[in-house]
Amino acid sequence: QVQLVESGGGLVQAGGSLRLACVASGSIRIINRMGWYRQAPGKQRELVAAVTDGGITNYADSVKGRFTISRDNAKNTVYLQMNSLKPEDTGVYYCHADGVTSSMIMRRFDSWGQGTQVTVSS
After folding, report:
1. Residue 105 has pLDDT above 90, yes or no
2. d(Cα 48, Cα 93) in Å, to the nearest integer?
3. What share of the chain is helix, strand, coil (3-state, %, to 5)?
4. Which member of 75, 91, 101, 105 lies 3.0 to 4.6 Å from 40 by CB, making a disulfide possible if both were Cys?
5. Rounded to an integer, what distance in angstroms lies between the CA atom of residue 114 and that of residue 92?
């Protein structure tokens, strides 16, 4: 099975920066799309940013101009550089990836990471 492990979360002051990383491991043939979602207390999980294997990015309006998503295909890793953080950015950030496995019987995968906590203090 494809596993995703996030890192880089923590506590930061408003206006500060954090860089999240997510590493995918397992029997992977190709990762089509990788992205970051977040879930604030009492709110629905929402897409923050995503990037395709072709480098096409998509951002939530609330983070445009502040966050940058990138991926290193050789390392099966996606990053989220978060600048000018605001208290409303607080939440659990989840990595997501979909693609095709390299097992004997190829199959699509759709995997989520465990999540990493991001807390922005005012």
Report:
1. no
2. 9
3. 5, 60, 35
4. 91
5. 9
- Beta carbons within 10 angstroms of residue 105's beta carbon: 5
Helix or strand (DSSP H, E) at 30: strand 28-39
1 within 8 A of 113, measured Cβ to Cβ: no
CA angle 106, 108, 104 (to 5 degrees): 15
Of the candidates 25, 30, 67, the one whose C-alpha atom is nearest the C-alpha of residue 46 is 67
CA distances from 75 to 11, 72, 111 (A): 27, 5, 17
**Exposed / middle / buried, residue 95 (Cβ in 10 Å: 0-12, 13-18, 19+):** buried
Q: Is the CB of residue 36 less than 8 Å from the CB of residue 93?
A: yes
Which residues, at least 6 apart from 72, have a Cβ–Cβ distance to it below 8 Å?
78, 79
| Backbone dihedral angles phi then psi of residue 88, each to the nearest 5 degrees | -70, -5
**In DSSP terms, which residues pair with 110 in a beta bridge?**
98
